[in-house]
């Protein structure tokens, strides 16, 4: 009996030791997996959020295609006026998204004229969400559409034709832009374009190069220029700093924006609409460019803490929420 009890005890201890080791290994594997997922979430999020934003843009485009198709299959004549209800609805949705995610504000909306032409010149962030929001504000509160100049690649994106038609996005020729303004419309141009979007940084440089087309357009149409800048726009979305020189060389050669965009964080965004710079027939387009660039730089140094900071902009966003909650 003693011998049998001895072997039974040894067997039980060995079994318990094996089970304990298995449980310990499982625990360590579980903890490793949890930490791996935890560390992976931010990495996935910074690339996933821009896709969400692009998804919202594409959903808007598909909605507009379906909206226009509904008119056509029912035998209605589709005119530019037919876009107004759809445009208003999308403006409401984008305005809600702006307030919800970014605590979006705008200062100086009164500088957008209620009637008559003007050229809106804005700083181009990595992803121009602030432009969508300014456009929505203008549609909702000024009852005016701001036409825009888009880069060539936009006109080749699938499903974008209805979006381009609804919000009147045009290629950027001087003749086309001047004609739009002469008809009494508002028109927006980002002189930095895709270069400024993809190759700017937290110091908010103006990457306008020798571009003076926007000044020629304004002087040809004899309209004022309204500068626009959005605080923290370069903290909302980023482009990689590593390999930027090589990526820019690739862009200059292909004109295809192959630079990845990441971010989408809930930063505080506030758009400042500056006072109109009046048409002055006594100056040259080059002098007008200098005047507008000087005003834009002044707005950046006045309204943006330099260099920009992701952490600070997120803190500003939550400070805004706290003030709203306790006001």
Q: What order do the helices and strands come in, and which of them pair?
A:
Elements: H1 2-73, H2 83-102, E1 105-107, E2 118-122, H3 129-142, E3 146-149, H4 161-167, E4 169-170, H5 174-182, E5 186-189, H6 193-199, H7 213-221, E6 225-231, H8 233-236, E7 237-238, H9 244-254, E8 262-263, E9 270-273, H10 285-303, H11 310-326
Parallel strand pairs: 1-9, 2-5, 2-6, 3-4, 3-5
Antiparallel strand pairs: 6-9, 7-8
Helix pairs in contact: 1-4, 2-3, 5-7, 7-10
Report on this structure:
By secondary structure, the chain is of the alpha/beta class. It has one domain (44-326): Glycerol-3-phosphate (1)-acyltransferase. Helix content is 58%, strand content 10%. It contains 11 helices and 9 strands. It has helices at residues 2-73, 83-102, 129-142, 161-167, 174-182, 193-199, 213-221, 233-236, 244-254, 285-303, 310-326, and strands at residues 105-107, 118-122, 146-149, 169-170, 186-189, 225-231, 237-238, 262-263, 270-273. The strands form 2 sheets. Strands 1-9-6-2-5-3-4 form a 7-stranded mixed sheet, sandwiched between helices. Helix 1 (2-73) crosses helix 4 (161-167) and helix 2 packs across helix 3 (129-142). The protein is globular, with a radius of gyration of 27 Å. The model is unreliable at 30-41 (pLDDT under 50).
What would you say the CATH architecture is? 3-Layer(aba) Sandwich
Oligomer: single chain
Gross morphology is: globular
Terminal CA distance: 82 Å
Tally of individual helices:
11
Integer tally of domains? 1
Q: What is the total tally of β strands?
A: 9
Q: Report the CATH C-level class.
A: Alpha Beta
* H-E order: HHEEHEHEHEHHEHEHEEHH
Strand content: 5-15%
Q: Would you identify the regions where 5 or more consecutive residues have pLDDT less than 50?
A: 30-41
Radius of gyration: 27 Å
Sheet with most strands: strand arrangement: 1-9-6-2-5-3-4
């Amino acid at each position: 009996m003693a011998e049998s009890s001895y072997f039974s005890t040894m067997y039980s201890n060995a079994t318990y030791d094996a089970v304990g080791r298995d449980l310990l290994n499982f625990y360590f594997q579980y903890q490793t997996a949890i930490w791996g997922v935890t560390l992976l979430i931010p990495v996935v999020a910074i690339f996933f959020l821009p896709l969400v934003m692009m998804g919202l843009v594409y959903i808007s485009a598909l909605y507009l295609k379906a909206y226009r198709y509904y008119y056509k299959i029912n035998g209605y004549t589709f005119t530019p006026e037919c876009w107004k209800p759809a445009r208003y609805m999308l403006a409401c949705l984008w305005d809600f998204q702006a307030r919800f995610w970014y605590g979006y504000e705008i200062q100086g909306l009164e500088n957008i004229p209620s009637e008559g032409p003007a050229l809106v010149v804005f700083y181009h962030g990595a992803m121009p969400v602030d432009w969508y929001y300014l456009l929505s504000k203008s549609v909702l509160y000024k009852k005016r559409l701001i036409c825009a100049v888009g880069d060539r690649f936009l006109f080749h994106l699938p499903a974008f034709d209805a979006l381009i038609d609804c919000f009147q996005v045009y290629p950027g020729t001087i003749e086309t832009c001047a004609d739009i303004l002469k008809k009494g419309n508002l028109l927006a141009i980002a002189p930095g374009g895709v270069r400024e979007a993809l190759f700017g940084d937290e110091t908010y440089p103006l990457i306008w190069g020798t571009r003076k087309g926007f000044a020629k357009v304004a002087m040809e149409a004899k309209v004022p220029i309204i500068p626009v800048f959005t605080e923290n726009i370069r903290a909302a979305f980023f482009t990689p700093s590593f390999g930027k020189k090589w990526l820019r060389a690739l862009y200059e050669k292909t004109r295809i924006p192959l630079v990845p965009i990441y971010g989408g964080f809930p930063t505080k965004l506030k758009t400042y609409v500056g006072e109109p710079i009046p048409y002055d027939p006594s100056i040259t387009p080059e002098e007008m460019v200098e005047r507008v660039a000087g005003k834009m730089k002044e707005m950046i140094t006045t309204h943006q803490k330099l260099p920009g900071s992701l952490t600070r902009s997120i803190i500003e966003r939550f400070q805004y929420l706290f003030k709203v909650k306790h006001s």
